[in-house]
Amino acid sequence: MSSAAFRGIFTIPATPFTEDLEIDWEGERRVLDFCVDCGAHGIVWPVNASGFPVLTDEERLKGFEVVTEQVAGRAPVILGVQGTSGKHAAKLAKRANEVGADGVIAMAPYVQEIEDEDTLVDYYQAIDREVDIPIFIQNHARGSVLTVDTMIRILNEVEHVEYVKEETFPVTHVITKLIERGGEKLKGVFGGAGGRYLLQEHPRGCAGQMPGCHITDVLVKFWNALDSGDRVEAKRLYGLIAPLFALETLKGSSYPEVLRRRGVIDNVYSRLTKTFPLMDEHDHLAIDDALRDLEPEFTWSGGPLKFGGPEGASVSGKQVGSQGSGGVDTFDRVG
Fold first, then answer.
1. Sequence-separated (6 or more) residues with CB below 8 Å from residue 99
2. Residue 68 located in a structural domain
3. Shortest CA distance to 12 belongs to which of 163, 179, 208, 154?
4. Whose CA, among 52, 93, 173, 275, lies 20 to 30 Å from 60?
5. In the chain, how many domains are there?
């Protein structure tokens, strides 16, 4: 892979499951091909929008091999190595490096929040000792939230830390401060939250965006419009994408549901819920409406779009759909 700085839409593949809640690895390969075929500038797995908290270490390690093998150099691969401690993250980072990842990304420890700055620096140094590829800091409320001062210290003291994915608030202000203070060592700051702030992040100099993968093709168009200076087109596309943002804030993420409707995966089984507590008939109608508007912008097609929720989905006994199977996923918060 080229040593040029990473830039653009580094999309986050969802992790599909079978009915018995095992990872659907063939489905994962289809999701990866979908991401590449949509023009993603990079692939990031497994992080929050991949559902990493419900994956075992063994599954993550196997997934590292599946992802790098399936992408096969068609786009840079950034593997998520976030751990509960430096020792845990280092084990994952070592394997990511061995399988040929182009970079790794890690939130700070996410079970027990770490406030001591020296311990946070040590965490990223533990990862650094196992890799010779770029490291992304992912700054997210799910992990131990890092101040700008702490991230700059990590950037300066940890050899391979070269990028940040910033998702704390106010995200635009944090991005500006990082870029102003990062110097030449900081090769780029990426945004998250599905791209909802990209209209404001791009003028501040962000290097890219790491969104969920469900509309990767449209987000690539959105990024390319911004990067070419066509803000009118970018704002038009943003208007079409925006209705999905409200649905993404549901614990029952719309990402796998949109992938099902687009024909990428067969179902939306989840390890977090087998019921439909958070997506009601109004949510499914909203997805229908958003996809009708977005369909002309899709560059990838798996056949006719499916409309209506999965078979069996209901609220207060009311059926909301009859196509497909499975349950509404609750992969994660956005990012």
1. 64, 65, 68, 79
2. yes
3. 208
4. 275
5. 1
- CA dihedral (52, 58, 60, 63) positive or negative: negative
Predicted local confidence at residue 281, as pLDDT: 86
**In this structure, is residue 185 part of a structural domain?**
yes
**In 3-state terms, what secondary structure has residue 80?**
strand
3-class secondary structure, 106? strand
The domain in which residue 127 lies consists of 8-233
In the chain, which ranges are E strands?
Answer: 8-11, 42-45, 77-80, 103-107, 135-139, 161-166, 188-191, 208-209, 314-315, 318-319
Give the CATH number of the domain where residue 41 resides. Answer: 3.20.20.70
User: Model confidence over 208-243: pLDDT tens digits?
Assistant: 999 999 999 999 999 999 999 999 999 999 999 999
pTM of the model: 0.91
Instruction: Tell me whether strands 208-209 and 8-11 are parallel, antiparallel or unpaired.
Output: parallel
Asked whether 23 and 17 are in contact (CB, 8 A), the reply is yes
In a domain? residue 316: no
313: tokens are: 């989905």
Query: Which residue, 58, 2, 16, 7, is CA-closest to 224?
Result: 7
Determine the pLDDT at residue 311: 63
Which candidate, 239, 257, 240, places its Cα nearest to that of 248? 257
Amino acid residing at 188: G
C-alpha 198: how far from its chain's center?
A: 14
Instruction: Specify if 247 maps to a domain.
Output: no
DSSP structure string for 251-303: SS-SHHHHHHHTTSSSB---SS-SS-SS--HHHHHHHHHHHHHHGGG-S--SS
Q: Is 161 helix (H, G, I), strand (E, B) or coil?
A: strand
Specify burial of residue 107 (Cβ count, 10 A radius: 0-12, 13-18, 19+). Answer: buried
Most confident stretch, 111-120, 129-138, 323-332 = 129-138
> Quick one: 132 exposed, middle or buried, by C-beta within 10 A (0-12, 13-18, 19+)?
exposed
pLDDT (average), residues 15-29: 96
**Rg (Cα) of the chain, in Å, rounded?**
19
